[in-house]
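ugh ok fine here u go
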Amino acid sequence: MRNLNLKIKIIALLIIILIPLLVFSAELDYQLEKPQKLFVGTPFKLHVNISSAVSDSIFSTQQDTLDIFILKDIQSSEEIDDKIKSTFIDLTYQPFDTGEFTFPELEFALKTADSLEILKTKEFILNISSVITDSTEVIKDIAAPLAVHFKFLDYFIPILIIFFIVLIIKYLIKLISKSKSKAKDEPVIYDDRPAYIIALELLNKLIKKDLLGKGDYLNYYFRISFILRFFIELQYKINAVEMTTSEIRDNLNNTDFTEKSEILKFLRHADMVKFAKAVPDSIESVDAINWLENYLITFEKVDKVVESNNA
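structure:
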């Protein structure tokens, strides 16, 4: 009887621990706040809410212009509740043309300890009128907010979770019946591939997007700069993604002078495009991604030399 009670307590405790791990995933919601009729120069707001793990970092593409829509203000805040971090980002835009326009999707990069995920909003249509509103008119939430939920909308997810819980309970009962010792936690599996392979995989996905062909230089340089910083973080064990270029220069001590100079030259050029609004030509942009690809491939060659020497 005592052994049975012990088994029940252990199973209940493990279920409580496992349920949050099974159901939690990053989630992005957004709401549009605008007047019922939108005029040229009248601001409107996009409220973005991203739910993620406490240890995750979130970065936006920092697009301050979307052709017709100009980003006038951005504010962000965070809340942590029961090991879930909610990041609130409020973006204020102003339209500067009349007609019917499509507000494009916005992308947010979610970086975990060993992976990178891109969360996106959806496109929506806005009609801009040419009549200027009274300057004393205050924006109010006249129209009902538009809410979009990207995850946990399918009905099969709760059924799938229950199925896994049942399997785990059966496995634990068999494990306890064979031994009185406590069950050991299974090791967490991380992506143990070399850093250059992970970075090259991200780079190939970026090339397929053909951002240069679309003329999206700002997003293009943000992505290639992010990939290099992510590679440096994995390869040299410094928090490069969240560092400025100057901080990377001060902390990057495991490289020779030539490699460090090339890295800093690449990052400074990307910073000029992202923050100083420099306009690169197409040759410079192609050279940038070629340099990054060749730089990552050098680590593949070094890896093969090490393997041949150990053979």
